[in-house]
């Protein structure tokens, strides 16, 4: 299991704070083997560290900062051989051929805790630059191109509250078949990092055939169920805030888990797509809940609750960020309920069966 290791947890990372990239051997007393270091990381999304799908037993990919720019590295954990790519990665296609990228320096400036420090935003003075946005990169060659510009989306069905605002993208994710991707377009008043507006879009790989799925000010976490259906926590005027299964390239949506899944969380489908895994933000007792929900039956399983120290809030909070093992039998979370920030593995095989 891949992991990052640092020696502090009570402050945001500075530009000179390195994180150690490593691997945990679950069959060898969870021993940690360091592999590399990176200066491109944050508390909320790490360094986008992940196994490369086409060689998911030996090749990993993560972001780095080199020569006053952000980049990404493909590393062979067996041989130690590595190869640098010219852009950092945000999301990887399921076949391991493509990556989506964005301007992490701009995200650091507009949305604290989700970007990387140490590199300046080249378009700092522009509200919605036409030369910056979402990039598509070939992981074999490193060739890349801008496919969706911020200027394009700022002029796509513009709203009155977009005037004199700063725009950025976040939360990119490929569809399961690799034909489309989903992304958030956000904007806010200059120097206002605490309040923003959000739209949810899908696009084809060329940045065309763009579909606006949610346009009522708030969209948070989401996941693809299949190539045409997306689950997202969003707001719909006259309906409220719910988990909505959207249908791509249409106006179809419905509510899922009403009265049960009643809180925003980091949702994802199980490998067999039968279960939704999600978490919650702290309640009045500072507990975060870890939940499984089966849409077909409406069955809810609360796996556990984890205490979240109230002093760890804002950028340095520790969301559970639950994620599945490849076989769907285990869930990994981050938590601080034992006074240090750690990763925990929970067996869920009996629950999902």
Explain this structure.
This protein has 353 residues and is mainly beta. The protein has 2 domains: 2-256, 6 Propeller (Neuraminidase), CATH 2.120.10; 270-353, no CATH class. The protein has 3 helices and 25 strands. The strands form 7 sheets. A 4-stranded antiparallel beta sheet has the order 4-5-6-7, with no helix packed on it. Strands 8-9-10-11 form a 4-stranded antiparallel beta sheet. A 4-stranded antiparallel beta sheet has the order 12-13-14-15. A hairpin with a 5-residue loop joins strand 10 (133-138) and strand 11 (144-149). It is globular, with a radius of gyration of 20 Å.
What keywords describe this structure?
Neuraminidase, 2 domains, four-stranded antiparallel beta sheet, 25 strands
Q: Which helices and strands occur, and which strands form pairs?
A:
Elements: E1 2-5, E2 19-25, E3 31-38, E4 50-51, E5 59-66, E6 69-76, E7 82-85, E8 91-92, E9 98-101, H1 104-110, E10 133-138, E11 144-149, H2 150-154, E12 165-174, E13 180-189, E14 197-204, E15 211-214, E16 219-226, E17 229-236, E18 240-247, E19 268-269, E20 276-279, E21 287-294, E22 299-307, E23 323-324, E24 330-335, E25 342-347, H3 349-352
Antiparallel strand pairs: 1-2, 2-3, 4-5, 5-6, 6-7, 8-9, 9-10, 10-11, 12-13, 13-14, 14-15, 16-17, 17-18, 19-20, 20-21, 21-22, 23-24, 24-25
């Amino acid at each position: 299991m891949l992991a990052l290791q640092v020696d502090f947890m009570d402050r945001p990372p500075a530009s000179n704070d390195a994180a150690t990239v490593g691997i945990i051997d679950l069959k060898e007393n969870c021993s940690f083997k360091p592999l590399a270091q990176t200066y491109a990381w944050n508390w909320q999304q790490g360094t986008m560290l992940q196994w490369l799908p086409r060689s998911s037993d030996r090749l990993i990919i993560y972001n780095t900062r080199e020569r006053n720019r952000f980049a990404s590295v493909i590393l062979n954990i067996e041989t130690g051989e590595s190869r640098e790519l010219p852009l950092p990665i945000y999301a990887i296609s399921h076949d391991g051929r493509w990556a989506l990228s964005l301007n992490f320096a701009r995200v650091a400036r507009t949305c604290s805790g989700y970007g990387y420090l140490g590199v300046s935003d080249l378009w700092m003075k522009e509200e919605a630059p036409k030369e910056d946005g979402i990039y598509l990169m070939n992981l074999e060659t490193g060739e890349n191109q801008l496919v969706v510009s911020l200027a394009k989306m700022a002029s796509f069905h513009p709203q009155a509250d977009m005037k004199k605002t700063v725009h950025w993208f976040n939360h990119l994710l490929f569809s399961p078949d690799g034909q489309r991707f989903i992304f958030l377009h956000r904007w806010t008043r200059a120097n206002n990092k605490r309040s923003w507006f959000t739209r949810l879009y899908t696009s084809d790989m060329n940045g065309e055939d763009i579909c606006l799925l949610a346009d009522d000010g708030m969209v948070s976490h989401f996941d693809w169920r299949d190539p045409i259906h997306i689950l997202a926590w969003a707001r719909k005027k006259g309906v409220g805030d719910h988990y909505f299964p959207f249908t791509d390239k249409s106006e179809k949506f419905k509510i899922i888990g009403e009265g049960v899944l009643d809180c925003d969380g980091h949702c994802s489908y199980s490998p067999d797509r039968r279960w939704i895994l999600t978490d919650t933000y702290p309640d009045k007792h500072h507990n975060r809940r870890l939940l499984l929900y089966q849409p077909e039956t409406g069955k809810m399983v609360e796996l556990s609750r984890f205490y979240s120290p109230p002093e760890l809030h804002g950028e340095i909070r520790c969301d559970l960020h639950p994620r599945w093992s490849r076989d769907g039998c285990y869930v990994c979370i981050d938590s601080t309920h034992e006074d240090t920030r750690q990763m925990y593995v929970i067996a869920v095989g009996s629950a999902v069966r």
